[in-house]
Predict the structure.
Amino acid sequence: MPDQRVAWITGAGSGIGRALARRLAEAGWAVAASARTARDLDALAAEVPGRITAFLLDVTDEKACVATADAIEANLGPIDLAVFNAGSYFPTTAEDFSVANFRKTVDVNLMGEINCMGPVAPKMVGRRRGHIVLMASLTGYAGLPTAASYGATKAALISVAQAFKPDFERFGVDISVITPGFVKTPATDKNTFPMPFLISVDEAVDHILRGIDKKQFEISFPWQMSAAIRLLASLPNWAKFAITRRMLPRS
Ligand SMILES: NC(=O)c1ccc[n+]([C@@H]2O[C@H](COP(=O)([O-])OP(=O)(O)OC[C@H]3O[C@@H](n4cnc5c(N)ncnc54)[C@H](OP(=O)(O)O)[C@@H]3O)[C@@H](O)[C@H]2O)c1
């Protein structure tokens, strides 16, 4: 199918990535779905037969990301849309501070997206078309307790997207960044703290698909959480810490 649009979704084995891969496939896209767990990808591919191709990939392996991008283009055709969504939350506190936690979080969340962007960006620039979407988080706007490493990677991704947007658009390539609040997924099911304005994965994917369709730069939702975090970030430090102290885990 030469006119079929091709999307690559990383972290497509569960949660937001899985739901997004499925919805794009149902809308007629040829979807390359990657993650590390074969059974998740096989189950996803079986849900929309013939539309989803599984590519086993650990995004921390730079060479494997290059090989996967090449394999996707060889099998499905030029990538039109890349949503670099794979990520994990490894909580960290003063009591369990660990350099390893930071290294792991940076390797998966930040370098994982950059490793995948590495082979895709020059292909899109060469073709003068394409859309790269980075998955960040509203946590990237304000340092929140237990999210020192997670929030740092998401702040970095927002900065990467802001820096590249005007640069890549000179070459016909769109850059977007997704900044969700809390979305109900296997990842957030593990959280023990309150998650204000929690939304379903289907609602999250509705926002993401609308934003992708409009080539919106920042796809931020739900609006209540987006407004609350931006307000928190704009407060003077005394007021900000008065609020974030209340978010500390009880010891
Ligand atoms: N849920 C939320 O409230 C929320 C809010 C803001 C931002 N986000 C971001 O949205 C993204 C998806 O989150 P989610 O809640 O949908 O999480 P999830 O259900 O845990 O899904 C994460 C996906 O990423 C894959 N993954 C993890 N580490 C990987 C690695 N090293 N290489 C390749 N794939 C890897 C996982 O599969 P394997 O383990 O099989 O590889 C899984 O498919 C993340 O970047 C997260 O930070 C989520």
